[in-house]
Amino acid sequence: MFEQAFKNIDDVLWKEDGCATELDYTEQTSWLLFLKYLDGLEQDKADEAKLEGKKYTYILDKQYRWASWAAPKGKDGKLDHNTALTGDDLIEFVNGKLFPYLQGFTQRASGSNTIEYKIGEIFAEIKNKITSGYSLRDIIDHIDELRFRSQTEKHELSALYEDKIKRMGNAGRNGGEYYTPRPLIRAMIQVTAPKLGERIYDGACGSAGFLCEAFDYLIKSNPKRTTAQDKALQERTFYGKEKKSLAYVIAIMNMILHGIEAPNILHTNTLSENLADIQEKDRYDIVLANPPFGGKERPEVQQNFPIRTGETAFLFLQHFIKIIKAGGRGAVVIKNTFLSNTDNASVSLRKLLLESCNLHTILDMPGGTFQGAGVKTVVLFFDKGAPTRKVWYYQLDPGRNMGKTNPLNDDDLAEFIKLQKTHADSPKSWSVDVKDVDKATFDLSVKNPKGGKVVTHRSPQDIMDEIAALDAESAEVLENIKALL
């Protein structure tokens, strides 16, 4: 039922002029799902209060609750078509009354860690792109079929929502920023091995895939939890920051569907924070992240970092090193060129990482791991504290070309997870003593001594020369074809 409802919603959105991509589909589905979820949450809390002989104070005023404007029901439990808004009346209510009311919650909320504040932030950052009130009525009717009440229902909905995020990532453009392959995330979590009571952080959380998977990991690995531990999982375990509005909304919805009622996700530019201002209370036990790379930050943002560079990912890595507690762990995805770049910032950052952390593992990922991104990546696993003595490398080779039809799966990473526990040597893995690393460049390139593929980075001139040669060859072939006509 849920899967068909999602398909029906996409079919309606496909006809909307304001919704042209999977990003738009996900955004518009998200705000409606959120309001439907909120209605179910409030009903549950009202029922609990009634059983305890207490009165529940609703977050939303009656006219703005889902059951009032979106899906008013008659005594038979079916939609009351006489009172349900549709057409222009529905659009006027949503754009002119509902959104302004919901946006006002940031001013009315008691604090930024409340669900009231999240409501205000979400609706301050997105707008309704559905212009037809009849289309919106169709979508609302499909959303109203969905149920969030049981864990089974939440699990199914979260799986479908994850699939929607994945399709959004595969669609290209900006979508790929929000999706890290879940098998890779799960492998990173298994290596860092979070424990109950530890605080987990992603300062570039996108769709919150790392935090959702970490939540699932802790639930599955700790089946016998106390009420206090469950409360800590809900309120004091997962923390994220996200700069982009759409990603922020998706992250909130994704975490809610996974079972976290009021996610600790802040809508902010992490890199605008000065590293010197980070205190012990701000630090986390574990960092899990795939920060954006290729971006360029403004000079005033670079001023916040001791190693100044315009490369977004390098600034994030400095932030992560600083914000991890002593003895804490990190697992961060980064471009593989970070290991060998000879510019001052790259060299200085590798030196900082080796001297302030134990960079114990580098996982070399194959090309095609990330849909729509042509760059190769590595995952850096490190512990904050003692300097690095040895680095264990693993070169992942799934034995096939990666792509949309052959994505990364959990089996591909099984050997890595197994060998990583002991840093064992194999045809795909080896160790390098930091004493043997060049102290002038701190080059950490992936070079398999057992005959694996050596990654060589061609110069821009070589690439341009090859393009010119291919162009000349193509021109010659065209001339030959013309001569035959």
- Give the CA-based shape: globular
Strands of the largest sheet, in order across it?
3-2-1-4-5-7-6-8-9
Any idea of the CATH topology of the largest domain?
Answer: Rossmann fold
Q: Look at the helices and sheets and give the structural class.
A: alpha/beta
Mean pLDDT: 88
Beta-strand percentage range = 5-15%
Radius of gyration: 25 Å
Largest sheet: 9 strands, mixed
Number of β-strand runs: 9
Run of helices and strands: HHHHHHHHHEHHEHEEHHEHEEEHEH
User: What's the CATH architecture of the largest domain?
Assistant: 3-Layer(aba) Sandwich
Structure annotation, total helices: 17
Helix content: 40-55%
How far is the first residue's CA from the last residue's CA?
Answer: 59 Å
**Name of the CATH class of the largest domain:** Alpha Beta
CATH-level-4 superfamily name of the largest domain: Vaccinia Virus protein VP39
Question: How many separate structural domains?
Answer: 3
- What's the quaternary structure here? single chain
Unreliable spans: 172-176, 454-458
Walkthrough of the structure:
This protein is α/β, with parallel strands linked by helices and 485 residues long. It folds into three domains: 2-149, Ferritin (Up-down Bundle); 177-436, Vaccinia Virus protein VP39 (Rossmann fold), CATH 3.40.50.150; 461-485. Helices cover 45% and strands 12% of the residues. The chain has helices at residues 2-14, 22-51, 66-69, 87-103, 105-108, 115-125, 133-144, 151-170, 182-192, 209-221, 227-235, 245-258, 299-302, 312-323, 344-356, 414-420, 460-484, and strands spanning 200-202, 238-242, 264-267, 284-289, 324-335, 357-364, 377-384, 390-395, 429-433. It is globular and about 75 Å long.
